[in-house]
Amino acid sequence: MFFNPNQTVEISSRHLPHWQQKGVTYFVTFRLNDSVPQSTLRDWKIARDQFLLSHESPLNAKDSREFHKRFTHKMEEWLDNGMGSCLLSNRKISSELATIFKHFNKERYELGEWVIMPNHVHLIVTPYRGHNVPEILHSWKSFSAKRINKLLNRSGKLWQEESFDQIIRSPSHLYRIKNYIKRNPENAGIEVYHASWI
Fold first, then answer.
1. How high is the pLDDT of residue 19?
2. What are the E-state strand segments in the chain?
3. 120-127 and 26-31 strand pairing
4. Most exposed residue of 5, 44, 81, 97, measured as fewest CB within 10 angstroms of its CB?
5. What is the 3-class SS of 101-150, one letter each residue?
6. What is the pTM (predicted TM-score) of this model?
7. What is the structure's pLDDT at 15?
8. pLDDT of amino acid 16
9. Does an H or E element contain 169, and which?
């Protein structure tokens, strides 16, 4: 269930590096398309790309920690500031999204802790054999975009194309991620309506 350095890792990259390994658990974050201002996002992307160009790929453990500290955590901080339309704060919308997450739970994947924040989602997921994180995320985002756009009588892009995903490395790492997810609403100063512990 945790990262195994002795097993094959598939690494793909669009704007972010994505590691895949069979039988492991992931911490995933995805966000609404308007959750970070374009000018802020542009500067963040330039700094991130410079970091990736100046470090050997795939990132070693030390560089990976530095990457997440400088870029993943900074993005999470911005998301918690509640920028953008924050459509997911609408109970009807977050309820629809929660239903979509649960639909194939125990069939295609196992959900761990998860929370729907106003402009983003955090969750822990373990894909079952024959399924993978990119496929699961595509299914969630594609289906939910159609449903939510219909409910709100809107059109256009709902989700930011790329997501953050990280393989859970150890029991202590899993414990820290679970606590982060559970404390995220309180730390951001918001009330949540849909989470794994509600």
1. 59
2. 10-13, 17-20, 26-31, 109-116, 120-127, 164-167
3. antiparallel
4. 5
5. HHHCECCCEEEEEEEECCCEEEEEEEECCCCCHHHHHHHHHHHHHHHHHH
6. 0.80
7. 47
8. 52
9. none
Spans of the chain below 70 pLDDT: 2-21
85 in Cβ contact with 34 (< 8 Å): yes
Paired tokens of 99:
């239903």
Instruction: Tell me how far CA of residue 65 lies from CA of 51, 61, 62, 101, in angstroms.
Output: 12, 6, 5, 28
What CATH number matches the domain at 16-35+85-188, 3.30.70.1290, 1.10.1240.10, 3.40.140.20, 3.40.190.10? 3.30.70.1290
Cis peptide before 185 (omega within 30 of 0): no
* Locus of tokens 């969750």: 123
DSSP codes, 26-95: EEEEEEBTTSS-HHHHHHHHHHHHHHHHTS-SS--HHHHHHHIIIIIHHHHHHHHTT-S--GGGSHHHHH
Domain boundaries, the chain: 16-35+85-188
Please report the pLDDT score of residue 5 as a whole number: 59
- In tens, the pLDDT along 131-152 reads 999 999 999 999 999 999 999 9
> Residues for the chain: how many in total?
198
3-state secondary structure of 31: strand
Q: Which two tokens stand for residue 157?
A: 């892009």
How far apart CA 135 and CA 141 sit, in angstroms, is: 10
